[in-house]
Amino acid sequence: MIDFNSPIIQIPRPSDALQLRKAMVANALSIINVSASNPNTKSIFIDILGPIKGQWDINRPFKCSLINGRYVTQGVSTCGLTCRGLWRRMGVDMPALYQSYVFGTAISAEKYFAQNNKCWQSPVPDSTLRPSPGDYLIIGSGTATHVLTVIQWQDDQLISVDGGQTNDKNLQCVLKRTRPWTIKNNVAYLGDRPVVGWIIFDMLPFKDQINVPVGWDQLIL
After folding, report:
1. Under 8 Å CB-to-CB from 6, ≥6 apart: which residues?
2. How many of the other CB atoms lie within 10 Å of CB of 205?
3. Contact between residue 149 and residue 135 where contact means Cβ atoms under 8 Å apart
4. Is the sign of the CA dihedral 98, 102, 103, 107 positive or negative?
5. Beta partners for 165?
6. pLDDT one-digit tens code per residue, 142-158
7. pLDDT single digits (tens) 24-67
8. What is the rounded CA–CA span in Å between residue 35 and residue 138?
9. Quick check: 97 and 50 in contact, CB under 8 A?
10. Tens digit of pLDDT for each residue in 94-138?
11. Residue 52: DSSP 8-state
12. What are the extents of the domains in the chain?
């Protein structure tokens, strides 16, 4: 069973798309329940968030308020950073992943990168087209924008690994989530948020080496 105790090893990048997706899902499984408040997983969480000039403000609950026309934040929302960290483990060849983070650029930078690399997919009205395990899915808009990594489908229930979640101490953590996928008035929804689109994971450019948890090759997608 893969979890946050699973050792991480480096291997040559698989050339097969299914194996690449399997490695991505395994990485996602390996960070479920890591959090800012658990001393046993905090270092894993910080590593996933990635490089920054200074320190991550993860010891305070995340808050965002609009004051005099300007957004004022406390703490940090980690949904986009969690997905970015998984891409970094998988050796996605996007330069921003390996540089100090510029606040406010996660999600938008990934979408732009995917569009440039022709691996962005918008929802198609009246279509059964859906993201696959390993894909990067964006839902909602404005301050309700959220991003997650798809790991499995059970009928019309999408199972994902999501950063930006909170625990009983109201601090950031990574959790496994299950939400219904529905079509309302030709618009795809995940839970109560409209689907913006998704990044087709295996079509991204990659480096030659990737990092995976031990046991990744035993997964069945």
Report:
1. 30, 213, 214, 215
2. 12
3. yes
4. negative
5. 173
6. 889 999 999 999 999 99
7. 999 999 999 999 999 999 999 999 999 999 999 999 999 877 77
8. 22
9. yes
10. 999 999 998 889 999 999 999 999 999 999 877 789 999 999 999
11. -
12. 17-203
Round to whole Å and give the CA distance between 135 and 152: 10
Q: Is 17 exposed, middle or buried (0-12, 13-18, 19+ CB in 10 A)?
A: middle
CB contact set of 2 (below 8 Å; sequence gap of 6+): 26, 29, 30, 213, 215, 216, 219
Of the candidates 92, 90, 94, 87, the one whose C-alpha atom is nearest the C-alpha of residue 8 is 90
β-bridge mates for residue 177, sequence order: 160
User: Parallel, antiparallel, or unpaired: how do β-strands 157-166 and 172-184 relate?
Assistant: antiparallel
pLDDT at 115: 98
Rounded to whole angstroms, the Cα distance separating 215 from 221 reads 14
Token pair for 4 = 């946050």
Q: Which stretches does DSSP call E strand in 57-132?
A: 63-67, 70-74, 120-121
pLDDT single digits (tens) 188-205: 999 999 999 999 999 999
Rounded Cα–Cα distance for residues 30 and 48 (Å): 11
